[in-house]
Specification:
CATH architecture of one domain: Alpha-Beta Complex
CATH topology of one domain: Spore Coat Polysaccharide Biosynthesis Protein SpsA, Chain A
Number of strands: 17
Radius of gyration: 25 Å
CATH class of one domain: Alpha Beta
Strand content: 5-15%
Number of helices: 18
Oligomer: single chain
Strand order of the largest sheet: 5-4-1-6-13-10-14-12
Distance between the termini: 61 Å
Helix content: 40-55%
Length: 592
């Protein structure tokens, strides 16, 4: 049983009281996750942290705790931003990290880096931020005009390889990597203006929340069960760590371009199960299963990242309330399939698995750009190759960090809840690379960014094994490495393309069988139309004559991309030198 609340006599040693309260929190945490999770303990757990903050407020070292600046790039996604910031406010009220001063949270701030193009989105984003500020969290709006002014300050340094080039009249939709790099210049300026503060910079995505998704027998729940800021403060206090990365739970952090095979396996298994069932019988929901969480089970090529591929299909958790029957769940599943193209994986949800943060710390190799934290010393590490606008920029950055700073780059069990789609529409509010016109969805741009992002990632991984980026690599070696990895990736993608088409053929035969109950009742016409659209969109994106198929077959595309990637890799050393000078300008240490 957790220990009871601690009394605080005036004569008591404050350090002893703090240690006793920390032991009580550890007991409550163990009880919270005993047997999976025990949500009834959560309120006491949060209250114990608030009591700890009261004790820490009068401790001599209280001022030395880190001030955490949360950096959020956003592009035309005000609804997701509102949910994200609401979760931040609830987290701050639940745990009160840093305490309150005159009604404001003393050690938490937000920098909103607005990359929106639509005027209405910009207006809404600013109002959302003002509302948060009125509720006690310091905020700063970093809009297009301020971004332009800042970039002009370092224009002479030629930072095109880091922040890109953008038309003055349309300084928007630059992409998450370039937007983050520009925001990091702003952070350097903020750091110079707060010399007495120990700052941590916490960069997240607007489609995330400060919660964890926990699997339960009835379905699952989202909890404010992790005191992110407290743990991060302790990690950076106790070691020489410069960068800490978390992960995400909920929706996967990868593109639908690399999830189609395993999802089709799950769809076929679901349809087979339905074919053998009575539509009027209750649907057999999966239990509190966290299988695949942490092993990238949603990724068709998980083995490339050192994870074990799971050959077994995953069962679908029907979202209809109550005890729905098979027919209802069949219809609900079919009509939810469209969300796959917007980044959701309806069958392979990543669930939170409890492990103490201290025990979870380990050397990292991947940066989750939507959930990582760094010290002011690590500002020198911008997101590399950002103007290429490739996916996998975080894993690529992670390989470089691992090579350069080793054990000062770690991962911790501090995941955030990732929800790519809106509940009302099943679609993303804004998603580059996904073009939807009526019922047809085109992933051509997404495929290109994903494929060449993988080429860049695994080429950089091989170069890093030879000491890159600290040791420059000969151009001939870089070119040979890129060519070799390109062939390996092309062969893997072609094989996966064949698997998708083979599974689509199997699914078509299964759905078209006139003996199955959904084909004998007009009540399932809408569901069948939805799954037909899903199949048609996969065929459109994976067929031999699709943009993806042409990309893999073309003899002209790779030479162009190879030269772009070669130039980016060979130019990294120069970019890093220019970036250091830019940081000095932001810090006021060098003339502009």
């Amino acid at each position: 049983m957790p220990s009871p609340p601690i009394s605080h006599p005036a004569s008591a040693d404050p350090v002893a009281l703090i240690r006793a309260q920390e032991r009580r929190i550890a007991d409550l945490e163990a009880a919270l996750w005993d047997g999976g999770q025990n949500a009834s303990v959560l309120a006491d757990y949060q209250a114990a942290f608030r009591e700890l903050e009261e004790l820490l407020a009068v401790h001599p070292d209280a001022e030395g705790r880190h001030r955490i600046v949360i950096v959020i790039p956003v592009a035309d996604s005000p609804r997701q931003l509102a949910a994200c910031l609401e979760s931040l406010l609830i987290l701050c009220r639940s745990y009160a990290y840093g305490g309150l001063r005159k009604g404001r949270f003393a050690k938490v701030a937000v920098l909103l880096a607005d990359d929106s193009m639509r005027a209405d989105s910009i207006v809404r984003n600013r109002e959302i931020l003002r509302k948060l500020d009125r509720q006690g969290i310091d905020t700063h709006y970093f809009g297009a005009e301020e971004q332009r002014v800042l970039v002009r300050r370092v224009h002479a340094l030629e930072l095109d390889g880091i922040v890109g080039t953008h038309p003055e009249q349309a300084f928007a939709h630059k992409g998450q990597a370039m937007m983050r790099n520009i925001a990091y210049l702003k952070l350097a300026e903020m750091h110079a203006r707060m010399p007495g503060e120990r700052l941590l910079f916490y960069t997240i995505d607007a489609d995330q929340r400060f919660q964890v998704r926990v699997s339960t027998a009835p379905g699952g729940c989202d909890l404010y069960a992790v005191n992110y800021f407290y743990h991060l403060d302790r990690i950076f206090n106790a070691s020489q760590v410069q960068v800490v990365t978390g992960k995400v739970v909920g929706d996967p952090p990868v593109s639908p371009a690399v999830m189609a095979v395993n999802f089709l396996d799950d769809v076929i298994a679901f349809v087979n199960e339905m074919a053998a069932s009575d539509p009027a019988q209750a649907y057999r929901q999966p239990g509190a299963d966290t299988r695949g969480s942490g092993e990238a089970a949603y990724h068709d090529m998980a083995d490339m990242f050192g994870f074990r591929s799971d050959e077994q299909a995953y069962r679908y958790r029907c979202r209809v309330a109550g005890i729905p029957d098979n027919g209802v769940c069949f219809a609900e599943f079919c009509e939810r399939l469209d969300s796959f193209f917007h980044g959701e994986h309806p069958t392979r949800i990543t669930w939170y698995r409890y492990q103490t943060v201290a025990e979870s710390l380990q050397p990292a190799r991947t940066v989750y750009t939507g959930n990582y934290v760094f010290s002011a010393e690590a500002l020198e590490w911008f997101i590399p190759f950002a103007p290429l606008r490739l996916r996998m920029s975080g894993p690529t950055m992670g390989r470089l960090l691992r090579s350069a700073i080793g054990g000062r780059f770690v991962s911790a069990n501090l995941p955030m809840l990732h929800q790519r789609t809106l509940d009302t529409s099943g679609q993303s509010e804004f998603r580059p690379g996904v073009v939807a016109e009526r019922e047809q969805i085109d992933l051509g741009d997404e495929f290109e960014r994903q494929f060449f992002g993988d080429v860049m990632l695994f080429a950089v991984e091989q170069l890093a094994a030879g000491g890159f980026p600290e040791q420059p690599q000969p151009e001939t070696l870089v070119r040979q490495t890129l060519d070799r990895v390109f062939v390996e990736m092309r062969d893997k993608y072609r094989a996966r393309q064949g698997l998708v088409l083979e599974r689509l053929e199997r699914l078509g035969r299964l759905l078209g069988d006139e003996q199955h109950w959904w084909n004998r009742s007009p009540g399932y016409a809408r569901a069948l139309a939805a799954i037909d659209t899903f199949v048609a969109n996969l065929e459109h994106n994976f067929a031999a004559d699709s943009a993806f198929g042409r990309l893999l077959a073309s003899a002209d595309v790779w030479p162009v991309w190879r030269e772009r990637q070669l130039a980016a890799i060979q130019g990294l050393a120069t970019d890093r030198q220019r970036w250091r000078r830019a940081l000095q300008i932001m810090n006021g240490l060098e003339r502009e």
